Amino acid sequence: MFLEGHRAPDFSLQGSDGKVHTLKDYSDKILVLFFYPRDNTPGCTAEAVGFSKLQPLFEQLGAVLVGVSKDSMKSHDKFIADFKIPFTLLSDPTAAVMTAYGAYGEKDQYGKTVVGSIRSTVVIAPDGTVIKHWPKIPKASEHPDKVLDFFKMLAKGR
User: Fold this and answer.
1) Does the CA dihedral 62-155-45-31 come out positive or negative?
2) Residue 24 DSSP class
3) Distance between CA atoms of 156 and 93, rounded to whole angstroms?
4) Is 47 designated active site?
5) CA separation (Å) from 12 to 19, 51, 146?
6) Which sign does the torsion angle of CA 79, 80, 86, 90 carry?
7) Is residue 32 a contact partner of residue 58, using CB atoms and an 8 Å limit?
8) By the 8 A CB rule, do 91 and 73 touch?
9) What is the pTM of this model?
10) How confident is the model at residue 114 (pLDDT cuts 50, 70, 90)?
11) Where are the beta strands (DSSP E) in the chain?
12) What pLDDT does residue 3 have?
């Protein structure tokens, strides 16, 4: 599934800030929605910490970071506390939203086909259009820098 140029699927998910979040809530912002498999695992922690360190730069470039996984709010709360995550994490326990974004489904894991969470990221414009989609992220620790590079390139084009 490749979403660039298409309308982002709507969502309504509970956030770590105690609020229910929808796509419409971000209609005046550029949204970086990153999907990750699981709180407190090495790759997911590296990715979330990387985004955390870069958050001020994303804010300067007009972007809001939001993470999404199947984890419970209790798990998100611990993850946020343990690693000082400064942005909202959304819980998608049924993986319905993740599936709509191509972030849940069949994937290759250690040479076997399994069904699960797929690390991916979308950048959504204020009008709800996906302007960038990374459908599969091979190196979680390097990904936040790649997303920031995309934003810097976007800023130059303005």
Assistant:
1) positive
2) G
3) 38
4) no
5) 10, 23, 27
6) positive
7) yes
8) yes
9) 0.93
10) confident
11) 12-15, 20-22, 30-35, 63-69, 88-91, 104-109, 112-117, 120-124, 130-134
12) 92
- Decide if 147 contacts 121 (C-beta within 8 A): yes
Structure token digits, residue 38: 């699981």
- Sheet with 130-134: strands ordered across: 20-22, 12-15, 88-91, 63-69, 30-35, 120-124, 130-134
Length of the chain: 158
Q: What are the two backbone dihedrals, phi and then psi, of residue 12, each rounded to the nearest 5 degrees?
A: -145, 100
Question: How high is the pLDDT of residue 122?
Answer: 97
79-88 per-position pLDDT tens digit = 999 999 999 9
Q: Which of 44, 63, 98, 124 is catalytic?
A: 44
What are the structural domains, with CATH classification, of the chain? 12-148 (3.40.30.10)
Give per-residue pLDDT as tens, 37-68: 999 999 999 999 999 999 999 999 889 999 99
**Phi (first) and psi of residue 139, to 5 degrees:** -125, 100
